[in-house]
Structure formats: C-alpha cells, structure tokens
Request: fold
Amino acid sequence: MVTAEEPGAEGRARHAAGTEVRTVRTRSRRRALLRPPRRTRVEVRRVGALSVLKFSLLFYLCAMLITVLALALIFQVLEAAGVIRTLETDLLGCLFQTGERPTTGACIPYDINGGVLFRWLVLAGLAATVVAALLNTFIAIVYNLISDIVGGVEVTLAERTRD
Reply:
C-alpha cells in the first residue's frame, strides 16, 4: 500500500491510476497535429480493363435509369396538365397531315403513345450504356498501352489534417 509520506508515492499513485500514460498520449497527439501531413507520390501504371467495364456499365445504367425516371415524371406532369393532348391535336396533327397543306383548318389528330415512346427510350438508353461502357474500356486499354511507353500518371497522396 502506498502512503503520502513515502517519497515518490504521489508519482507511483498517478502511474497506477493511469494519469501519466494519458499525458504521454496527449503529447504524441499534439506532435501529430503539429507536424505537416505526410505526402507521397505514386504512379498509376495500369488500369484494369475489366474493372473499368464493370464500373462503366453500372454507372451508365444508373444514369440511364435516373434520366428515364425523370423524363417519365415530366411526361406524366405534362399529360396531366393537358399539354400532350394539345400538342397531339393542334401541332402534330397539322404537321403530319397527308396531302396538301391544310387550308380549312381540319387537321388529322395524332396520338402520342407514352408506352411506345418510353419503350424506345429505354432501348436507346441501354444501347448507349453499352456503347459508352465499351468506349471507356477501349480508352483504358489505350491508356495501358501508352503508359507502358511513356509512364503512368503521377498522383500525390496526402493525409487529411484534422481540424
């Protein structure tokens, strides 16, 4: 048992309680905060073509789905407001009338079918997704070939500073 009369008893009591250990930890944290963040330079020499293909397919598929959903929402709002019906009867009916120009004002009604429109839109989006992903993969392969000749892209990595 440690008593207060013994020399150094207070230090031993603090060490037993863990106070001294906390002081050392606090000093090392202060030193870590005061030193500048570490930096290192790395060179990107190769990019995996298969990983680029997978990432590109997923990215462009998500972008296509977001675009189709946004266009479907806009189409529904325009249809509910009656804009699509007005477009069908007034503008498109007169543009796509068979025969001569309408002089009597009698236009053939034209029907905009949203299901067919969005079916073709999704098919075109899927085709564009595949083409863009293949293009990205081709670019990755070309990058790998060029980096073998002239070297890769140099990137500097740095630690984040804690504020």
Notes: The chain is about 65% helix and 5% strand.
